[in-house]
Amino acid sequence: MSSSCPTPVSSEIDMTGVDPPSSPAASTTVRATVVQASTVFYDTPATLDKAEKLLAEAAALGSQLIVFPEAFIGGYPRGLSFTDRTPKGEESFRKYHASAIDVPGPEVERLAALAGKHKVYLVMGVIERDGYTLYCTVIFFDPQGRYLGKHRKLMPTALERLVWGFGDGSTIPVFDTSIGKLGTVICWENKMPLMRTAMYAKGIQIYCAPTADPNATWQSSMIHIAHEGGCFVLSANQFCRRSDYPPPPEYVVSGTDDDLLADSVVCAGGSVIVSPSGTVLAGPNYEGEGLITAELDLGDIARAKFMFDVVGHYSRPDVLSLVVKDHRASPVTFTSTEQPSKP
Question: Which of 236, 234, 239, 214 has its CA nearest to residue 281?
């Protein structure tokens, strides 16, 4: 597939009518951008180049936080059949595995440098390679160019389970940053009430929800979570056309390409930013690739929690409680042998 991409990569979609501020925002206000764009499938270097351009465009808008979609680096394997145990299926997995990245690794170092160059917090969806197992992962960077950590998707959905490993409780961080408490829950993990509750208990204020779900019901979930958690929800999805994937017969989308033209939409996006009151601040965008930007007034969190704090005054720990096992789960543990006693 060609590694070239149009310049500029995308333009900001004006969905709020709010111009970039002419003066620095108040200390309680964060300018955030959600990126809606497609991977250059099977071409990770080209995808990183595209991410660099998008990041620069978002930073030029004055954004302090930039959120990319699920599986942006490495690609969401829409339509790939991992039940195919023929040589063709094995080769598909080899190519997908080669497109993934190591965390840490050179691609992580490049993204960290970009976050530092543009002085932004960066939240990036990647396919993480750990040996020969792949994980759907989100990685975090700060404006000093430091890698902060990662979240591995706990529960892949449907056929995702055939290609992605399962995360564990050791990678569900919420980072206490200069712009607020920042974390992520990936795609249909957001339908897991106990996962959401764990994030609320960690005090999340800016809740990033990268996804691959373009359906209308996703919007309802994002509004509900923002209102339930009393937090800002930033959901980033890819906007993909058939031409963003390799051509058939190498790559077949949704089991058949008979009714798909090069410009057929295979993922319509729907990226959105929602306030703690459940008000949509920007989006959803179903128009194409673009940057969705909004001002987040962190004072809205306290205003929302005045009436409802799900893990605070509105909880009933005497009746309902949650235990989160946040240790690393490993299939193999090596123990040191005891030191021989001295004669």
Answer: 234
3-state secondary structure the chain: CCCCCCCCCCCECCCCCCCCCCCCCCCCEEEEEEEECCCCCCCHHHHHHHHHHHHHHHHHCCCCEEECCCCCECCCCCCCCCCCCCHHHHHHHHHHHHHCECCCCHHHHHHHHHHHHHCCEEEEEEEEEECCEEEEEEEEECCCCCEEEEEECCCCCHHHHHCECCCCHHHCCEEEECCEEEEECCHHHHHCHHHHHHHHHCCCCEEECCECCCCHHHHHHHHHHHHHHCCEEEECECEEEHHHCCCCCCCCCCCCCCCCCCCCEEEECCEEEECCCCCEEEEEECCCCEEEEEEEECHHHHHHHCCCCCCCCCCCCCCCCCCCCCCCCCCCCCCCCCCCCCC
Give the global pTM.
0.87
Residue that wins the pLDDT comparison between 16 and 54: 54
Q: Which residues are the active-site residues?
A: 70, 153, 187
Confidence category of residue 88, pLDDT binned at 50, 70, 90: confident
Per-residue pLDDT tens for 107-123? 999 999 999 999 999 99
Length of the chain: 343
Distance CA 242, CA 262 (A): 5
| Residue 340 predicted with pLDDT over 60 | no
Predicted confidence (pLDDT) per residue in 141-159, tens digit:
999 999 999 999 999 998 8
Cβ atoms 131, 138 nearer than 8 A: no
